[in-house]
Structure formats: C-alpha cells, structure tokens
Amino acid sequence: MFVYLSKKIAIPNNVKLNCIAWNKEEGYIAVAGSEGLLKVLKLDQGSNGQNKGGLAAVSNLSMNQTLDGHKESVRVVTWNDAQQKLTSSDTDGVIMVWMLYKGSWYEEMTNDRKKSTVASMSWTSDGAKICIVYEDGAIIVGSVDGNRIFGKELKGTHLTGVQWSPDNRLILFALANGECHLYDNQGNFAMKLNIQCVRLNGSNAARVQRIASICWFSGRSSSRRNRPVLAICYESGKVQIMRNENDDDPAIFDTKMRNVDAKWNHDGSVLAICGTTLETPVPPAQRDNNQVCFYSPLGRIYRTLKVPGSDITSLSWEGKSLRIAMAVDSFIYFANIRPDYIWCYFEKTVVFLNSNSSSGNGVRETPMSVITFWNTVSNQSFLKEVEPTLCLAASSEHCVLGVECVSSNIKEIALSTLENRSNTADDKVYQLLLCNSIGTTVDSKYTDIRPSFVGINSSYVAIASQEEILIWHYHTPKSASNLQSVKARKEKRFHIDDTPTGVEMAKDLMLGSSSTGTGEAHSHRRISDPICALALSEKLLLVARESGAINEYSIANVALRNRHMMSSKVYKMAINCNSTRAAIIDHMGVMTLLDLDDNRETQLNFSRVERKDVWAVSWAKDNPLLLALMEKTRMYIFRGNDPEEPISCSGYICTFEDLEITSVLLDDIISIGELQNSSHIIQLRVKSLRDTDDLLEHVGLEDAKQFIEDNPHPRLWRLLAESALKKLELDTAENAFVRCANYPGIKLIKRLRTINTQELQRAEVAAFYGEFEEAEKLYLDADRRDLAIELRMTLCDWFRVVQLYRMGGSGVSDQQMETAWREIGHHFANLRSWESAKEYYDKSHYIEGFMDALYHLEQFDELEQCVEKLPEKSPLLPKLAEMLASVGMCAEAVQAHLRFGDQKAAVNTCVNLRQWGEAVELAQKYQMPQVNTLIAKHAAQLLNEGRLTEAIEMQRNAGRHLDAARLLAQLAERELEKRAPMLRIKKIYILAALLAEQHLKAVATPEIDYASGRNTLLDSISLEDAACIERMWHCAEAYHFMLLAQRQLRFGIIHSALTTAIRLREYEDVLPLEDIYCLVALASCADRAFGTCSKAFLKLETLSHLPEKTLQEYEQLARSIFSKYEPEDADMDTVPCYSCGVPVPDSSPACVECGARFPACISSGKPILQPTNNIWICTTCHHCASPVEISRHRACPLCHSLIASMAV
C-alpha cells in the first residue's frame, strides 16, 4: 500500500483539536477540541465532467456545522454508525447525543454526572448499547434510547478506555496502570488479559505503562478467521495484537514512537497507529515529528506517513479505508490510501481478486478466492474460484496466478509431484496457474517457493520468495505445437546469494537435476537482506533486496549481468519495452530511473529525473522513452527526461500503448464494491496526441506534419495519413503511410491514383476507414451501384446486397439473386436459425443447404422427397442417404444409394441398420454373394461375445431360418443347464421348429409345394438339415407331453396321465430318464397298474448315474409298495390294431404284433388307434389330434397356431 497527504483543513481561531471520528456509513466527520469545539464536516467529491475517480475529484465541504452545547474542552467523540447518532463528552463529564434532522445535527439528549471526566465511550456493533467509562472507575451501560441498563463503580480504579467484543457479549476496560480487564455484558468480572508486550506491576518495572489505545475490530473479516483483531497500544511504543481474549501467543512489536491513537480499517487488514517519534528531542521550530504507521494484523509494517505539526491527537478511517483523517494541532489532515490490490490487465481484460471472495462465514473449512476476469470491451465477467491467491501478473496474452494450496486433497497431489519433498504437515505448497482472458487454465506448476513476488513475459514466469527465485518456462497451446527446444523447457531455481554465470551454471540451476543436498540447503538458508521487489521483461530479470541492491539477470541463460545499488529500499520496479531502462520506486515513494543499457553512447542522463509521492509507473509498450507515472492524484507522462502537463486521475494504470493510457478505477470496483462497467475504464491521451488532433482540426496539414516530424510516432503518422486522405492530399498521405509502415495504406494510395473521380476516391477512403455507410452513399451518388454492391459483398452484408439489387430494377440476373439468397441462408445457418435458413435456401434453389436445414428441423418427410428432386448420379445423393440412415430411414436411404448407383453402399446401409432381410434381397438382386459371408462373420462375432439372442434375430431377419433355428436349439440347451422352467424350454423349441418350417417353405418350388409335399421337401434337402428339423419337433414334443402328463396327473385324469407318461419313453434321448420313469411310476401306481409301476422301478434301480443313496431310496419305496400289491396291471381296455387286427391296450403307442405305430393325440396324449381316417392335422406343425379332443381348443396345443378350420 502507499499513503500520501492529500488535503488540509484549518480550524478557525487555532482551536486545538483533541479527537476526530469519521462516520463509516454516511461519511460525516466529527472533530472536537478545546473551548467546547464540536464540528461536523462532510466532504463531497465534485465532478468536472470527467470520471477521474473519487480520490482525484475535487473535494468540497458540503457540510460544515458547529454543534453548540459543550462549554469545556471536548475529549471524546464516537459515532453510532448503525443508528446515525453522534455522542460527545467534555472534561466536565457532560455527555451529549446528537441526531440528524432535515440535513442538520441537533441535540437529542444530555447526561451530566458532574463527578468525573469521561475517559472513553464505545457503542456495540449493532448500535443498540453504549458503554461509558469515567476516570474515577464508574461504568454506565445504556441503550440507544437513553435508558440505563446497568451501572457499576470500580473503587480505586482509574479507567482510560473501553471496547466491546465483536459479538457484544464482553466489555474490555483499559486501566491507568496498563492492565486490561474483561467483564461480561452484565457487569460481572470475567478475566484479566495476559499482557506480554510490557512488564506490569513487576519489581523491575521502572514506570507505569499507560495504555494509549485499545481497538477491537468488530466487523466481518474477509480473510482468515484466526487473524488477530484486538490491538492494545501502549504509550511507550509497545503493541500487542491478539486473536481473541484468550490468545497466549499474540503478535508483539514496537513502533519506536510515543503512541497516541490506533484504529483498524474497515476490514481489519490494516492497523493505523499515530504518535510522535521517540528519537532525540525535537526543537519547537521543527514540526515533522508526527507520524502514522500502518501495520498488518501480525505486526509487519506496511508504510510510515510523516505528518506536519507538533502534536497529533487522533486519527480515523473513511468507511472504505481509502482515506484517513488526522487531528494535528488546529488542523485536519487527510491522506489517501492506495491499496496494493491483487490485479492485472491483458487483452482488454481486467483480472482482480474480489475483496469479499474469501469465505469467512464459517461455511467452508478452508478459504477460497474468487478471481474476476472482466472483459472491458464486451463488459462480460468470468469468475474463477481458486485456492487463496497471493499474487497476479500479466503478459500480452496470459496471466499467472500464484495460489497457496490449503485444501488437503490438492496439497497431497502437489506434494506428490514435487521432488525432494517429504509429505509433512508443516510443508507449504504453492501453485502457479497460467490462464487466458476468460479464466481457463492453460498450464500450471506446483512449487514450494512462496510466490511473494511475480513477473511474467511471453515465455517465462519468474517468482521470488524472501530468499529464492524460480524461473518457469511455461507452455501454451501455441508453444506446445512447436516441439523444438522442449527439452530446454525446465525450471531454473537459485538462491539470491548465488551468482549464476549462464551456461556453466545451467545444470546446477535446473530444478529437475538439482541434488537433494542442494535443495535442502536452499530451503534452510536464511539471509539478513531479503528480496523486496521483482521485475521481468523479455530479456532481463531485476530482483531488489531490502538493502537497496538490485541484481540484474539475463533470462535466456540465467546469468547475473550486473549489480546496482540504490540508496533506499525498493517498493516497485518496471522495465521498459527494450530492456534498456527501469523505473524504481522506493518505500518513501521517490521514483528514479535506472539505466540498464551497456552501450554508454546511447545512454541519457537520468540522474536528475526524480519524483516524489509516486505509487505506480508504466512504460509504453511501443516506445522505450515514454513513461507514465501516478504521483498522488496526478498522472505524469515523461518523454525521456521531460514531463508533460499532469492529468488529474486516481485510476490504476492498465496499459500504455499507441500514445493512449488505459486506467481502471479499482477503488470503485474492489473497495467500494460497485458493479464494473465501462465508466470504470478511463482512456487518457498524451499531450502529443492531443496537440496533433488540434493541429489537424484547426491549423493544417503542413504544421501538423512538422510537429509530427519533431515528435515522431506511428500513431501520429496514422492520424496525419487519415486527415490527408480525407482531404485527398495523396502525396502527404503516402509519405505518412510510409513513415508508419502501413502497407495496406500504401496500396490504397496506388489504387486511388488510378481513379479519376473525386467522389469515388472519397468513397474508397471512407471504406478504408470503416465508414461503409458514407462510402455506399458516395458510390450511389456517383451512379456506381455496382461498386456499392461489391462493397457490401466484401462485407458479407447480403441483406443490403438484395436491397441494392432491387433498387436497380431490371438488369439483375436470377443467378445473382440466387447467390445473395444462398449467402443469407448461410448466415442464418451459422446462427442455427434453421427455419429462416430453409426459407432462403429454398429461394436460392440450393438443395444441399435445404437438406441441411430440413435435417436439423427434423422434417424428414420433406427430406425424403429430396431423393426424387435430385437427378440420378447427383453427388448429393450419398450425403442425403447418410442423413436418412442416421435417423433409421433404411428404405429411403437405400433408394438414395440406388439412385446414385452405389448398390454396395445400399447393402452396407441395410447391414448397419440390422435390416438383414433387405440386405440379402439386395445382394441376391445385384448378385453380391459376399453379403452371406458378411452375415456369417457378424453372427460368429456376436456368438463370441455371448450375444446369442442378437445373433438369432440377425439370422432370422436375414432369411437364414435354419441357422436361426439351430441357434435357438443352442439357447434351449443353455436354458436347460440353468434349470429353467420346462414351459420356457418348450416354447424355445417350438420357435426353433417353426423357423425350420419357414426354411422348408423357402426351399419349396412350384413343382414341390410345401402344403401338399412337405415330406417330399424333407427328402429333397440334405439329410443333416432334415434330421435337424425333425429333431427340433422331437424335442418340442418331449417337453409338450411331459407338461401334459403332469397337468393330467394334477387334475386327477389318472389313466390319461399314465398313457401320456408311457408315451414319454420314446423321448429318452431328450428328457432325463429319472424324470420319465418317476412320472411313469407315479401315474401307474395311481392308476393301479402295478405291473407297469414295477417295470418303472426296475428301470430306476438300474440307472447307474444316480447316487447310491437315491437308488436305495427307490428300492425301499418299491419294497414298501409291492409288499402290499402284486406287480400286475389291472384289466385294460383293448382295441384291434388297424394293421393286423390283434387287440392292443388302448395306452400302447405301438402294436406288439406287427410293430405298427399309433400317433399320439397332441391334445390328450392318447394313441390314435385309427390314424388312417377321422383325425385332425395342424397345418403349421403337421401334428395330429382326435377331433373330439381338438374341438375344445382354439389353437394348436403344440405350436399354438390358431385353428382356422376343423376340417379333418
């Protein structure tokens, strides 16, 4: 931060001031002094028509009211910011409360104790209570409406100060003997504070340590929650800052002055302490022993401000801490604060750390920073949340953020990437983030060097801690494409006391090749002369130390080139564009110039260039002699040694280029919290640019040319060229273009010399400078509509082209209009406005664009019609086919491919869309046998991947029904292994068999019809295929009859169940033998056919694959049955065999005499003993049933096909 005196107000009659208080909300300033003086002032920042920032604007007193009421010297004034009240007290103990009414302050209430003088007063943070302490030990706590809450007298105690705790639950009292006592808000003693900065009441205490001020910050801190907030200042110069009332490890330091008053700024980040120096006695005539010191909460001094006068008595901060007011003798001094914001500027983008970005509300365990990337052209802002940010710097295209890794997961990753580091809790790790103008990280690096200072150029980032320096060669998307010298892109790290010499030290400086011992030595070396500033250019690195020494390094090989010595500690440095000079600002605000050029002949004498109260500098990017600096609230432009007239401004300099300075009002954006907009960016022009404009506007080209020759700059030559062109002074313009190396301008001059008409010349000039409306008007006035149209075509302003075509009436061809319509369609297509694009593409008969619009609008019906609109062999047909195929419109895509003549693409489309049948049909039609090979390979791949069902579907769709049936049979076997329900296995076999029948239908010929010659078809195909078909029906019958027998047994149809079970003996190759004969034994036992039952048990007892225990159980069960019943069948009904006439049992599946087989009825399971007549045959599965039995069904019991007719 930087501080400088900015204003002084004298109090009439030389009345000595005792105290001052600045209202944080409305900006009122209360000053009090002897003779009962009490004034309320208010400074308003006036405006002279240009936004120059609050600090640079002229400040006028909008209020200067004297409050009458006190008779004696007023000692204490304090504001109630929440309630907008002022409380004052004088030496007589009279307390007065003032209120604002209709723009003036009036007395609201008075209290006169008449016993003692008020030592101090303090309001709570919410303004509800006030605590008043008297010197005699009396304490009064009252409410804002004047009611007393409680009173207390501390006998024999001399009080000097009071403060409320931030939560308003505790009251801290300062005693005259230097002690601090803590009470609760009810007046009960709580504890005595542990004072460590001075010795109190000790035997060695030479004198009483008197407290000058106590200040307990009560606002919300935007930084870490454990930051010290309670400051106790002693007159001896000792200061103790505590985190809370119980802090046993406070920050302790000595101000080296007699402390008088202390105040925290608005966010508790800076403590201002005023007093007088404790050096040798100052003669009365000397009036500069007053000073204000600014400290961090941990006691590190930021800045010291010398204040004129003999006796400083009080100070107070402005609401947003951009100014501070001091009461000195009979004067009020104001000082401006220039905070060191964390910010940078590049590519028209302001990057800054939000003041309230850190999470201090307790929601997060670790604070995070929010970085804003504000594009000043588009006024768009991009937010980036990162770890706590320590520094920012920018080059022409990128910026670098230095952050501290505090999140445990990020810290763990960082430690794992660093070499020669152990993962301990005390390690601090930092990260460098390289970002573009929208906040996207393009490169990053972890390091254990704290980035206290940072610089960046087009290739390198340099950071420095107190003692170490790291140079990082970063990568960007542009540099990553250039793989040359990738090996050399390593980090270079060295200590400030090292003396790198370039190539010889290169290996020692490589971070990746440094030894463990060297790394440890770097981390543990401590120096007495730490680093205090850093500056980086394209060629040089300057590193300043607190002693005033400046090390100059070359960037390319990291060699120490030179050492410079300054007379005081350096605050800031900046290097010009060609690395020949540097601007140095010391800690007192004195700016000097340092020559870095080794060529003594080109050096200028810069020793006499010295400016005071400078807080910012910026070199021009395009002129090494131009320097802009901020001196208080004035900006000076130096050309060499000579300054121009100052410009009033309080903005922070962003960039200096093309004789224009861009500055930003960071105070308004960051401190005050305004929403950033264009009014926060200020564009300032240097004097030579302003003078050139005046000369060109009011004098003439010759005088302006002479002035520019005396003050040459490309920007001025461009201005002269523009002015000369508009006056058609071509020679002067050409000379100016040559001087500023503007090749397009020189080409324009050549073109203008070939044009005879001045109107057309002016039109060309207007078009060159972007005044297109004026150029078009000049073309039309000259009756050159064709040139106006050509201009608009060049600008791609096709809407205007259409208007100009229509203005001309006839003479415009259809092709020209269609071109314009097509380009307008392209315009809407780029904007994704497909409805409008479709309209204009249709007007221009541009089929390709029309197709794209229909596709994006999902109007596929119209897209399908484009197939017929396009001629055969049109190159757009494959694209159209691809569009149709992408949405699953297979037939239409095939039609487009065939219309183009690409049959192979049509087949591939069918294959890709799983339309295998159509693919086979096309392949057969166009004699493409390779499709069968393709289908077979695809099926094999699906089977290898275990996608059996997909393979079945593919084969079925491709018309390969028998192959699909075989795969279904495999599926049934898998289900059997999984012990799936029998009904599911039966259905799968039925499906397989039905697909096999489809295969038979496919191989049928006109000579051999499927309906009448199925058996003949079976004989005509291969034996393997025929056996496969019969096998599938055989398996389906097995599970059908098994389910039928169990169903009959369950419903008590015992004899039918036995008949069906006996039929299952024909399917021993399909069904488990144990299941068959268990069912036969059960059904025959229930039907009292014990002979059949005995045979079934005999079969079960001979099954060798059954466990021994199971066989014993069957044997025991048979013994228990046949011990009661004889193994004989009961009398059975018999019928004559249709072949030999021998009587056979009605449940027998074949004649035992002649061997004739009786087909089973698929409805009842019974044998059909007269199969030659009066039976029903299914037209789908070709199985038979008894007409009586089938009459109860609507579908075939086996294949489940609907029964269309009951004809037999």
Automatic annotation (TrEMBL):
Q: Where is the IFT121/TULP4 N-terminal domain?
A: 1-338
Q: What is its main location?
A: cytoplasm
- Gene3D superfamilies (UniProt xref): 1.25.40.470, YVTN repeat-like/Quinoprotein amine dehydrogenase
**In its keyword annotation, does this UniProt entry include Kinase?**
no
* Compartments in which it is found: Cytoplasm, Cytoskeleton, Cilium axoneme; Cytoplasm, Cytoskeleton, Cilium basal body; Cytoplasm, Cytoskeleton, Microtubule organizing center, Centrosome
**Annotated IFT121-like TPR repeats domain residues:** 1030-1129
Annotated protein name in UniProt: WD repeat-containing protein 35
Q: Where are the WD repeats?
A: 67-98
Print the keywords alphabetically.
Answer: Cell projection, Cilium, Cilium biogenesis/degradation, Cytoplasm, Cytoskeleton, Repeat, WD repeat
UniProt keyword annotation of Repeat present: yes
Looking at the record's lineage, which domain of life comes first?
A: Eukaryota
Tell me how this protein assembles: Component of the IFT complex A (IFT-A) complex. IFT-A complex is divided into a core subcomplex composed of IFT122:IFT140:WDR19 which is associated with TULP3 and a peripheral subcomplex composed of IFT43:WDR35:TTC21B. Interacts directy with IFT122, ITF43 and TTC21B. Interacts with IFT43. Interacts with CFAP61.
Q: Name one GO biological process term.
A: protein localization to cilium
* InterPro entries associated with the record: Beta-prop_IFT121_2nd, Beta-prop_IFT121_TULP_N, Ift122/121, TPR-like_helical_dom_sf, TPR_IFT121, TPR_IFT80_172_dom, TPR_WDR35, WD40/YVTN_repeat-like_dom_sf
Query: In this protein, which residues make up the domain named IFT121-like zinc finger?
Result: 1159-1203
Against Pfam families, the record matches this protein to: Beta-prop_WDR35_2nd, Beta-prop_WDR35_TULP_N, TPR_IFT121, TPR_IFT80_172, TPR_WDR35, Zf_2nd_IFT121
Function text: As a component of the IFT complex A (IFT-A), a complex required for retrograde ciliary transport and entry into cilia of G protein-coupled receptors (GPCRs), it is involved in ciliogenesis and ciliary protein trafficking. May promote CASP3 activation and TNF-stimulated apoptosis.
Q: Name one GO cellular component term.
A: non-motile cilium
Per the database record, which ranges form the IFT121 second beta-propeller domain?
343-684
Domain (IFT80/172/WDR35 TPR) spans 716-804
